[in-house]
Design brief:
Elements (H helix, E strand, L loop, with lengths): L1 E5 L27 H13 L17 H9 L5 H19 L9 H5 L14 E5 L11 E5 L6 H6 L5 E6 L2 H11 L9 H10 L6 H11 E6 L16 E7 L1 H5 L3 H12 L2 E13 L3 E4 L2 E4 L5 H10 L2 E10 L7 E2 L2 E9 L4
Parallel strand pairs: 3-4, 3-6, 4-5, 6-7
Antiparallel strand pairs: 1-2, 7-12, 8-9, 8-11, 10-12
Helix pairs in contact: 7-8
Length: 346
Amino acid sequence: MTLRILLQAAPSSSLEQEVLCSDVTTSRPAGGGEEEIMSEERWEAQCGGFISQSQVYHQKEFSAKEFFETYLSADSHPALYEEVVGFPMRQLHKELSSVLLNSGVASEFQSFPVHVFVSPHLNNYFLLPITTFPGHIKGKTLIEFTLGPVLFKLLVCCEYFEEITVLEFNDECSMELKKWLKKHPEAIDWTHVSQFACSLDGKSNGWREKNEKVRERVKQVIDCDITADTLVAPGVLPPADCLLCIWGLDVISKDQDDFQKNLEKMAALLKCGGHLLLFGTINAKLYKVGEHSFHIVNYDEEFLRKALRDCGFGFENLENRPRGEFSDSIIYDSFVYVRARKVRNP
């Protein structure tokens, strides 16, 4: 059974797409646009031609607070903030929530917060197969591979997982996250994101309680050495029910071979039958934090599909979303979101 839901979204003549919960494919607008290409050329010129010399995330030059101000704060560019924070939070909420999982009754849909379904990159409607509606990802334990001192994903996941472990690869970002968890007076203020997380739950308040739930359910933050054979020492963590990675693999991997090796290390921490929720960037070049340019591994959708299959994952959902408004902070073609289940050991 399939439920067709008509949404009054902004019209989009350049983006024709239909989204299915079982397999999502998004096509890029035709042409690409001369103005957009010129913007990228100007951006690369402003970088001084240092794309090949860009730094990597786990180096000391990465400023956690500058990263927050650029991509995650209430003052960030609205389009950039939507793609980095808004879309992932809504997507996670949609995947983890159980609303309409076992019922297609229209009255239940009418009481559901519509904004959970709506994305500015989607056309006027999409299809929801009720029998496979997101919300079936269950479990007690989550391992999160983080980029930056990022809290927004935990504000969603804390409602669905009792034990959360964060793996961090940058010392400064690890320190900033631990500051927030310990209520340090100089910790980054995530109030605006906590309030948005509450709105996804259909609540107008309660953000302080949500913050406390995150602090309660994050059991540990582990500093990792990405060059080691394993991300954590054997026996430190039991296999998790779910892995979450939002751009973490992209920024710690030197090249595609390194991406594959790091994905295998991640997969080793997930139990068979568990889920991987992966966000990444297609055909990325670099991103900026302050005055520094940082490396992102470049890959396309075909490579990503093969890498996941080779690491023992079976696809349940893949969504490739073209980039929105051009930003001078990052160059990429599209965001990709994957929900996959581990079906075997690599």
